[in-house]
Amino acid sequence: MIVKLALVTRYLFGSNFLINGINWWWKILPYPTRHDPTNIHTPHFVQAMIDTGFLFDGIKVVEVVVGTALLANFRVPLALAVAFPVTVAAWAVDIGLLGSSVRAQVLGWSGLLMNTFLMLAYFDSYAPMLRARVSPTAPWDPR
Q: Which residue did the predictor score with more confidence, 7 or 30?
């Protein structure tokens, strides 16, 4: 049951990341894009990130790469770890700056919950890096 739920969640989360990432360059959803004029309803912090240009471009590239990896089942644990800071930042903006919007609440919480659930579902992949003490090893060191 958990395996099927993780599969469905991975597809939903990957689709969400891919569509939101692509939306930055080609408008699919009614969210701000790089080509939109300044909107008075956009929070100042979000508008500042948009105005810098490179910050949102970087985030959206991460979203497209992570979304593609999740949909292709390619290096999923790595993709989830890379997605987590983006997910937490999006959650913080949705909850903190857009808290009065039900849509922002749903999107913020659902993204955070999906990313967290998937990281727990793939926990065995993260277990080695969570050890308290380890020694460095190099792939070229023939011990």
A: 7
Instruction: Output the pTM of the full model.
Output: 0.84
pLDDT of amino acid 143: 62
96 three-state secondary structure: helix
The answer to whether 63 and 20 have CB atoms below 8 angstroms apart is yes
Closest residue by Cα to residue 6 from 138, 132, 117, 126 = 117
Q: How far apart are CA 40 and CA 126, in angstroms?
A: 43
- How far apart, in whole angstroms, are the C-alpha atoms of residue 138 and residue 43? 47
Dihedral sign for Cα atoms in the order 96, 94, 36, 53: positive
- Find the mean pLDDT for residues 46-55: 74
